[in-house]
Amino acid sequence: MSVAGGPELFGWEFATDPYPAYAWLREHEPVRWTTLPSGVGAWLVTRYADAREALADPRLSKNPVHHAGESHTKGRTGIPGERSADLMTHLLNIDPPDHTRLRRLVSKAFTPRRVAAFEPRVRELTDRFIDAFAPAGEADLIHDFAFPLPIYAICDLLGVPEEDQDDFRDWAGMMIRHGGGPRGGVARSVKRMRAYLVELIHRKRGDLGDDLISGLIRASDHGEHLSENEAAAMAFILLFAGFETTVNLIGNGVHTLLRHPGQRARLQQSLERGESALLESAVEELLRYDGPVELATWRYATEPLTVGGEKVSAGDPVLVVLAAADRDPARFAEPDTVDLARRDNPHLGYGHGIHYCLGAPLARLEARTALGALLTRLPDLRLAADPAELRWRGGLIMRGLRTLPVAFSASGAPHGK
After folding, report:
1. 167 Cβ contact list (under 8 Å, min separation 6)
2. Can you give the chain as a three-state secondary structure string?
3. Which end of the chain is more exposed for a tag (fewer CB within 10 A), N or C?
4. End-to-end distance of the chain based on CA atoms, in angstroms?
5. Reported confidence tier of residue 75, pLDDT bands at 50, 70, 90
């Protein structure tokens, strides 16, 4: 759509490369009232300093009840289908003290010890998916790798039985394919997911394990006052947020490396030497340069306030544009340049403040494992399409490729054989 005196926002050209438009907004209207494609109006915050401040401002609530337009925009904010499936009571939609209580319960699954213990499983999944397509010499890296890896990993973490995980892959696939378009298919998938999670919670009550859902049940049974609906909503948001962000991190990250061969070669050389430091900083730079989350999830002003010099009224939605903030030249030297060894890199790719992404340690582990394995096992990995023909999924919050065709020298031997 055209914005008077500024760039076109939210069209297909914008989806392909939103960064020039964000640069214009940072320079000319860093906090701008915009009508979104859904018809909902919101403030877009694009400068780093303003974004960081807004993400931590307690006057900007996550609860949609504070939205001034809630009565006539129901279903047009938040995650498609979550309202109709009665899955609203999760970490992205609540404030303290409920947010504090629920985050405390779930954070036990993402301690450094738990994440480190999960590394062998992530490596096993990574090698399994590469083994499946390596003999062909070509693949769609989104469909064949970046998508299934985090799905099966988060299913394991939640405690979804192996025989049910393919169903989750189907439901998640429907959510990704239609996340930015008609919501009917998404809503159906979300409802099926909720029904399954409720049934799984009932099943696990009689057979608790060491998984996250069992942990939520134990907490509830020991007086933490976690309702069945809260448990289902928490499991849902961990699945939703835990897979799509990692799909995009891996997909966008590989795409960036393929478009910057000098940086990619530097990383491969460090991996050949058995070094890990550059891989770790590379993941952070890929999060900053073209991260998986374009806009932070919805916030609503609970009282009149000023953001970046603009007066925001009570009830106004505020959307912090992480992708714009992380290319702000006022904070990052040469922000449009990829530097995998960048040291001063306090990016906002996983947010800031009390809503900082709980699953960030797991996502980083998956990204390091995935990128390391791809560059080591498929050293001549290359893009198998005209970069101009690649298409990005339409949507407001997430940023990711629909497909990523790649080619490489075929390898018939499974990893380790």
Report:
1. 192, 196
2. CCCCCCCCCCCHHHHHCCHHHHHHHHHHCCEEEEECCCCCEEEEECCHHHHHHHHCCCCEECCHHHCCCCCCCCCCCCCCCCCCCCCCCCCCCCCCCHHHHHHHHHHHHHCHHHHHHHHHHHHHHHHHHHHHHHHHCEEEHHHHHHCHHHHHHHHHHHCCCHHHHHHHHHHHHHHHHCCCCCCHHHHHHHHHHHHHHHHHHHHHCCCCCCCHHHHHHHHHHHHHCCCHHHHHHHHHHHHHHHHHHHHHHHHHHHHHHHHCHHHHHHHHHHHHCCCCHHHHHHHHHHHHHHCCECCCCCEEECCCEEECCEEECCCCEEEECHHHHCCCCCCCCCCCCCCCCCCCCCCCCCCCHHHCCCCHHHHHHHHHHHHHHHHHHCCCCEECCCHHHCCECCCCCECCECCCEEECCCCCCCCCC
3. C
4. 54
5. low
The predicted model gives 18-24 an average pLDDT of 97
The backbone torsions φ and ψ at residue 42, rounded to the nearest 5 degrees and listed phi first, read: -160, 155
Q: What is the pLDDT of residue 237?
A: 80
Q: What is the mean pLDDT of the chain?
A: 88
Tens digit of each residue's pLDDT (9 = 90 or more) over 78-113: 666 666 555 677 778 889 988 888 888 888 778 888
| Sign of torsion over alpha carbons 134, 140, 146, 149 | negative
Between residues 7 and 381, which one has the greater pLDDT? 381
More confident residue, 188 or 338: 338
- Domains, the chain, in order of start with CATH, read 12-390+399-407 (1.10.630.10)
Half-sphere exposure of 46 (CA within 13 A, CB side): 22
Instruction: Write the pLDDT tens digit of every residue in 334-371.
Output: 999 999 999 999 999 999 999 999 889 999 999 999 99
pLDDT for res 181: 46
**Cα separation values, 173 from 14, 66, 83, Å:** 24, 32, 20
List phi, psi (to 5°) of 294. -80, -45
| pLDDT of res. 176 | 67
> Distance (Å, rounded) from C-alpha 324 to C-alpha 328?
7
